[in-house]
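--- STAGE predict ---
source: upstream dedup step, 1 unique chain passed
mode: sequence only
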Amino acid sequence: MKYLLVAAFLILGACSSQNDLPELPESIEEAVQSPFRSPENMKRDIYRHPQETLEFFGVTPEMTIVEVSPGAGWYTEILAPLLRENGHYIMAAPVADKPYFKAMEEKINTWKEKFPMVKIENAVFSPPGNIQFPKAGSADMVLTFRNVHNWMANDGEKAAFAAFYKVLKPGGILGVVEHRALPSQEDKFAKSGYVRESDIMEMAAQAGFSLVATSEINANPKDTKDHPAGVWTLPPSLKLGEQDRDKYLTIGESDRMTLKFMKPKN
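--- STAGE serialize ---
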């Protein structure tokens, strides 16, 4: 009898756990407000405008979307649950061979364990030499947020944009959000974290993309872009610690471009 009671409690506990899991969102608005997201990440919405950004790119729940270099999964928490039922979410992350990338991978794995109903397919993205994407022409959309400067630092931007073009279907969309440099700034390796908008447009054009639209959704006119530790001076990094902390918190996160490109249909 004792063993039967223990088994019953275990079954009830499992059912209760399953019942406590949140319902999958059916729209971008629901995904942005859903309990799949951490409160800490939601605090950044005032700077990153996820609903407006994803609507601008044209995200729908039926799409196959490749998110490139997702970091600790800020957008994963929105996209993976949204695409769970009728779409397909593919996370293309760098090889976790360094402490930073390992830490990012661990954060995402912890989140996946918390929400076992969310499915994520993995791909490798460590340009220029190690890009292992799904088959060519299989994705409706490729999205990347604040990453182009990292590829430029390793001379990997050409390989990155070529891979985006290859994996997309004809008519597929590439959405890019990046820290925006002043037009007069020149930084070949993007050591400041800021990139000129014209340079990203050129990278995309060389890969074969057409520019569809630009948006000021993620603009921040308070950002002077001349900070001692580059973009990492600003939140959320606050690399200078307590030095002028209030000043940088008042500025907020960086000024960002939001660019929408298309792979030609023919």
